Amino acid sequence: MIKRICHFISEYMGVIVLLTAVAALVFPSFFNIVSPKSINYLLGLVMFGMGLTLNARDFEVVFSRPKDVIIGCLAQFLIMPALAWLLARAFMLDDALALGVVLVGCCPGGTASNVITYLSKGDLALSVGMTSVSTLLAPLLTPVLTWLLAGKDVNVDVVNMFMSILWVIIMPIALGLIIKRLMPKITAQAVDFLPAFSSIAIAFIVAIVISANASKLLTGGHLVIAVVVLHNICGLSLGYLVSLLAGMPMAKRKALAIEVGMQNSGLASSLAATHFAMYPMATIPGAIFSVWHNISGAIMARIFARK
User: Fold this and answer.
1) Can you state the percent helix, strand and coil of the chain, rounding each to 5?
2) Is residue 110 classed as helix, strand or coil in its secondary structure?
3) Which end of the chain has a smaller Cβ tally under 10 Å, C or N?
4) Over the stretch 214-244, which tens digit does the pLDDT of each residue have?
5) Phi and psi dihedrals of 197, rounded to 5?
6) Contact at 8 Å (CB) between 138 and 104?
7) What is the C-alpha separation between 290 and 261, in angstroms, rounded?
8) Per-residue b/e over 49-64, b at no fewer than 16 CB within 10 Å?
């Protein structure tokens, strides 16, 4: 029964995150009791769970098919940051929202992309390999790209962002890998419950961010929602186009499109809350992206699964 419940939660993650976001928007006081600082801990737990699921075979694709991973990671860290900057300029977003959109674009692929790739009958090994490599590159590339694209408008502390990503992303993953190595039997039993746990944690992150900015979202949130939706759709489309131009088969195209279009938006909200507290609205694009990319991912999975 517990496994069935966990399967239901992970399968309908998009719906659950959306309902949580709506609840946070309508009843913000209920979620305001949780401090925004807890975002880092929740994201750390998600990354710890990711570490528990990884093994050496997940990195074999990096060495057996380096070309695919290199193309994917280049697309990830070129397309999404560039799209973020262009959309922020095209829609003339204020500094806080523009920063939030750029942060989303500069983050690595999200763990939900692996689930969506699996449901799409895509190349799961490539998806996991890309998520792992882009996550390992994030401590360096995410702060540097954010500084390059948003440094003229806001003060970006590259070193502190680097350390923050190490502590919130890399260290929990490393701890998960160690625990899996030391206690393989217990870890194997826990793996079935991790997707559901991660879904709940992400839903809480979204709720915390949206409840803290509910009034501003209700009065002027339509523009940033449009930007976030366009960012995701363009990322999915351009990711697919890159894989098509590279001559990849359908399974790889699915994986690369999903991996490029789906970001670790929880990290974007975490970085915004930690390093840009003077711009509270900078957390909003990451929260909206967390809601939307799970919805678009579920739609993409149904479309791709037929191909």
Assistant:
1) 85, 0, 15
2) coil
3) N
4) 877 777 678 888 999 999 999 999 999 999 9
5) -60, -45
6) no
7) 12
8) bbbbbbeeebbebbee
Q: What is the pLDDT of residue 220?
A: 65
- Residue 52 structure tokens: 């528990």
pTM above 0.70, yes or no: yes
Task: Give tens-digit pLDDT for 123-162.
Answer: 888 888 888 889 889 999 999 999 999 877 788 888 888 9
Token pair 């919805």 is at which residue?
Answer: 295
Cα–Cα–Cα angle for 282, 269, 96, rounded to 5 degrees: 5
The identity of residue 280, as a single letter, is P
Asked if 236 contacts 258 with a C-beta cutoff of 8 angstroms, the reply is yes
Burial 268-302 (b: 16+ CB within 10 A, else e): bbbbbbbbbeebbbbbbbbbbbbbbbbbbbbebbe
Angle at 198 between CA 49 and CA 201, to 5 degrees: 120
Helical segments of 166-283, H only: 171-182, 184-190, 194-212, 214-220, 222-245, 250-261, 265-275
Cα–Cα distance measured from residue 301 to residue 307, given in angstroms and rounded to the nearest whole number: 10
227/233 Cα distance (integer angstroms): 10
CB 295 within 8 A of CB 18: yes
